[in-house]
Amino acid sequence: MESDRLGIAIKSAQAGEPEGFSALMDAYGQRLYGYFFRATASHHDAEDLLGEMMLRLVQRLKSYDDRGRFEPWLFRVAANMVRDRIRRVKTAPAITSLSADKGEGASLADQIPGENAGVEAGMLGAEASDELTAAMEKLDINTRQMILLRHFGDMSFKDIAKMFDCPLGTVLAKVHRGLRMLRELMSEQ
Amino acid sequence: MTLDEKQLERLAQWLDGQKIDLSDQEMAWSQDFCSDEQDIAGELDVEVPADSLARVRQLMLTAVAQDAAARQAQAIEAAAVQMQAKVARETEPEPQPAKPAAEVAILQPVAAQPQRVLRVNFRRMAFGAAAAAAVMLAVVIGWHVMNTQPPIENIAQGPAILSADEVDFPLTPYVSAEDKVFDRLAREIDSTEQTFNVPLTKSPTYDADAPAVPTVWPDEPGKPPHS
Questions:
Q1: A34: nearest CA in chain B?
Q2: B53 contacts chain A (CB < 8 A)
Q3: What is the pLDDT of residues B106-154, one digit of tens each?
Q4: Residue B165 DSSP code
Q5: Which of A29, A132, A148 is opposite residue B53, by nearest beta carbon?
Q6: Contact A44/B at CB under 8 A
Q7: How many Cβ pairs within 8 Å bridge chains A and B?
Q8: Using CA atoms, how far apart are residues A50 and A36, in angstroms rounded to an integer?
Q9: Using an 8 Å Cβ cutoff, are A127 and A43 in contact?
């Protein structure tokens, strides 16, 4: 979206006009949905998070000070939502059965710390169907987020480094390593 | 191909769009990185279900409408509060320079300061009573003066400047109240005699030289007859 049109849409939305929010939805709806889907590997979660995101936008856009950095701001909010969602899934009490024979939740054996595949991996596995999603499960959550923010949010390394509070070179190294790993995993599959 | 932290930082800045001179090694590394990124980018794109976006859009527009309604409600509430404050300001008495209590009581509504009005009314009542008493006293004094005129010789003396001979206005003789009563009775008798043509003072039964007949008063119970 051009910066002029984006500025007009933001001001319109800040004034509470539905047209402004619709314009923002047109501009970022698909990219945000793609980001949420790749982060959660679930269309249901992606839609849920996108709806929550737009509601937050309605509430918070009034206090947003537009200095031409709307996209980084938007995807930072999105990244925080994904992080919160993953944290919630981690801490939420799961249905426990002595054995997982009937497929009702995780068994006690699955909850023993140690060789745990990771909650986020299980979350991703909910609708993991394509090769890329399966490959992304193998990445650590930060590397995955960095790659997704770089692609969907069009964020600079500087912004990503600031968001994850790590050196610039480290971000580039992680993203490079993650991309290599994805290529290798996809070529194997 | 391995790069140190410093080189990676320079490369990141170059990839962010900053103008940095890269070495051949760094340039080769960056081309390799961009190639990987482009390859994965094609895979990352997701086909978004149209109904999902439509539902989210509807949810968002509903939230916008609710937010607008809430804003409107807040604006109405704020306007109402402002109006209440304005009305309160207008109905409250403004501080004014001190005025006499009676004037304040006249200007202010009765309901606003009933105690003050009540006090002022008492004052008015007292003032009215005093004025009425003064008027009555003046009337009584006037009546007394009218009925008790000084002797003629005192009036005739007049002011010290004038002598008795210099007084040229006619002096009315002093007439007592008893004389007035007798005069009036005489006038009434004359009037009655003329009207009925009957000489009351010279009645045939009237004899001025006849011995006086003692008046006999009816006996009162328990008392001896009056003689």
A1: B46
A2: yes
A3: 555 555 555 555 555 777 888 889 999 999 999 998 888 887 765 555 5
A4: G
A5: A29
A6: no
A7: 124
A8: 7
A9: yes
Record the tokens describing residue A107, joined without a space: 């068994």
Residues 6 or more apart in contact with residue B78 via CB below 8 angstroms:
none
CB-based contact A141:A120 (threshold 8 Å): yes
| Tokens read off for B40 | 């994965």
Which residues face A107 on adjacent strands?
A97
**Token code pair at residue B205:** 């039964």
pLDDT tens digits, A78-112: 999 999 988 888 777 655 444 444 444 444 444 44
Q: What is the pTM of this model?
A: 0.58
pLDDT (mean) for A157-169: 93
CB contact under 8 A, A16 and B71: yes
Q: Hey, of A21, A124, A170, A172, which one would you mutate to test binding to chain B, going by the most B CBs within 10 A of its CB?
A: A172
- Between chains, do A47 and B64 touch, taking CB under 8 Å as contact? no
Q: Using an 8 Å Cβ cutoff, are A92 and A179 in contact?
A: no
- Give the pLDDT confidence score for residue A56 in this predicted structure: 92
